[in-house]
Amino acid sequence: MDLCERTSNTIRHPWETTRARMILKLLAREVPDETPLRVLDVGCGDGYFLKLVKEKFPRASIDGVDLNIDTAVKEDLSRHGIGTARDIRDLKGPYDVIFLLDVIEHLNDDASLLEQLVKGYAGKGCLFIITVPAHPALFSSQDRFLRHYRRYQRHTFLRLVRNAGLNIDQDGTMFASLLFPRLASCLAEKFLRLQPRQHAGLGQWRHGAFLTMMVEALLDVDNNFLFIVRRMGLALPGLSLWAFARKNT
């Protein structure tokens, strides 16, 4: 969760929890649980995902960097053995795994950050795990609220990753079931001039545990289906894109 979206709500948004499970599932296929990795999460937010990584990979040395990180988050992550920084220049590579989970769309110059990470922080064979919002046509006031500069087409996203000096191992999509609601919202905003009463960040999820569990289950089915279909060679559309890529040298 971005720190600007954080509220007092203790129930995580199903989008965030199911994305985390999908990424960890994919990572576990690449790396044994007991591997002593050095891990960096760029744009770590409140550190929710990093704590899951630490549970899954207890021998990993983990750092998170976020411009908006505060003392409370730093202390919480420190208790879990996770290092933090507000400026990436305060950290030193090389890292074995670098996460960029819905981060580069927040940057005017996404290519520069990728190149900086590849050249200055990635070790040989470093695995980059990157997620971004898909479909530029769905860019809306919700994206502006979240401070996004863009949404991505699959081919432009993959070209960006390759141009940074990375080889793509695998890629795919997530959240096909959320495409129609987002499309309907965008069409209403564009053609009917209907504006949402209030834009919602991840911290605004106010539903109970049972409904949250049901939505999570449906999104898990959605993402697992997309993954299986992608392994068969088909790239079905989804609201998010992901890529696993490695440093060339």
Describe the overall structure:
The chain is of the alpha/beta class and 249 residues long. It is built from 8 helices and 7 strands; from the N terminus they run αβαβαββαβααβααβ. A 7-stranded mixed sheet has the order 3-2-1-4-5-7-6, with helices on both faces. It is globular.
SSE-based structural type: alpha/beta
Rg: 18 Å
* Main sheet makeup: 7 strands, mixed
Total number of strands:
7
Mean pLDDT: 90
Number of helices: 8
Strand order of the largest sheet: 3-2-1-4-5-7-6
Protein topology:
Layout lengths: L13 H17 L7 E5 L5 H9 L4 E5 L5 H9 L2 E4 L9 E7 L8 H11 L1 E12 L7 H5 L8 H10 L2 E9 L4 H13 L17 H23 L8 E8 L2
Parallel strand pairs: 1-2, 1-4, 2-3, 4-5
Antiparallel strand pairs: 5-7, 6-7
Quick summary:
By secondary structure, the protein is α/β, with parallel strands linked by helices. It has helices spanning 14-30, 48-56, 71-79, 110-120, 141-145, 154-163, 179-191, 209-231; strands spanning 38-42, 61-65, 82-85, 95-101, 122-133, 166-174, 240-247.
